[in-house]
């Protein structure tokens, strides 16, 4: 019987490169070309051939700068897909699972067909380790907001073991890794428009999503529509908490899925005031006393402190150095009482010197600390600082970073919370960030080494993008209006950050508004013509 192994001379370069990937996987680590040659049994290989195979189009192997052979992006994707196919898919009575579409911190999403009518849905199954609070929270939010204003439509739920599986509208979409490489300006306009429409509708009802990112926004370049998903972390900023009502429930049966329908409570609600999002910029400027000489005086103080590190930052007692706005009504601030509240200076101890500072460890009351939820790289400064005041504006920052991700072709800020702060400082400087830390009483979360005068420097967004982009040619096509929009989203102080409603009215979305206006006029014309025709036929 003849051998089933192809003769070495009949192998194509592509087949040889995939064989070398198999050798790499057996090693379980990157390797030098010479080591791969010694382990290659299928064909005669040389180090030069291995290097050449690394460079062919679509090669599954890649030669690093330090001359190690490793799996390329194409090779990695192929291996991951193979492993995913080997994972057992769940079995549901009323649905046929076609494939796994994605998995996150709280659950796995499957593409499925309903047995009795063949309709396609997305089924989100929570992980066994997921807290029921998060599952119920998402169910509550989707019942209220799903299917409107570019929020994913909720179709119902059913029990699988002890878990509630959510049945959602299935949306054909382009994955973030494709969008960051291929999205164009026209598509970016609709991407941003749909995202801010979704956020605006939530924020008007006092709901903060808290995990806005490209992975939680399903955008179709074919339809130019996007849908906000994943409401596990969503939170209401209203006084009254709503009870969970399972308005739609799938009951598993042999051939059909029956619904238990109850009317979800959809009454309007009034937002309470929160420390980050309800005040206007002008009101804040009136409310908060500011330094007489502003940035210039601040720079001067920091320079003096660098020369005399042990000198105290101010002679007035700490109680007098705190901002006096809370004690005085807006508009009636005595300018003689305005005192500078500079960035803190090292004093040689564990305490931090300056107005409104945290005391040394063990002294006084501990500062209230807020949560640091969301996805790395997309969290707002007030979240990174663990402010107890986190409002709707955290979503605006995340939306701005999402747009930045698409025009750069990569994540703009990375690392743990402290590293994120350092990355933001490279763009925005440390002065505004320090002001936010003071306003929110989170000075203890501010990295002390960022008090260096060099960290005060800010950069123009466009210049910063040019230094950090992976899509330089695309960056040259970005209009000024988009840079301006992102700039307004990435204002460090949440009180001065743009709102979702204001973002929708931004110049960048003018083509979207014009297109929608024309569609409305066309629908009216068609409706009018239909009415006229029906009258003539009577």
Q: How would you characterize the overall build of this protein?
A:
This protein has 538 residues and is α+β, with helices and mostly antiparallel strands. The protein has four domains: 11-85; 95-172 and 243-259, Phosphorylase Kinase, domain 1, CATH 3.30.200.20; 291-509, Transferase(Phosphotransferase), domain 1; 510-538. It contains 19 helices and 13 strands. Strands 3-4-5-7-6 form a five-stranded antiparallel sheet, with helices on one face. A two-stranded antiparallel ribbon has the order 1-2. Helix 6 (176-182) crosses helix 12 and helix 7 runs antiparallel to helix 12 (393-408).
Distance between the termini: 83 Å
* CATH 2nd-level architecture of the largest domain: Orthogonal Bundle
Q: Which ranges are low-confidence, i.e. pLDDT below 50, for 5 or more consecutive residues?
A: 241-247, 252-299, 305-365
Helix content: 25-40%
Kindly give the count of domains: 4
- Structural class by helix and strand composition: alpha+beta
State the major sheet. 5 strands, antiparallel
Q: How are strands sequenced across the largest beta sheet? A: 3-4-5-7-6
Assembly status: single chain
* Strand residue content: 5-15%
Enzyme class: transferase
Biased composition (Basic and acidic residues): 282-291
Pfam family, one: Pkinase
Protein name: non-specific serine/threonine protein kinase
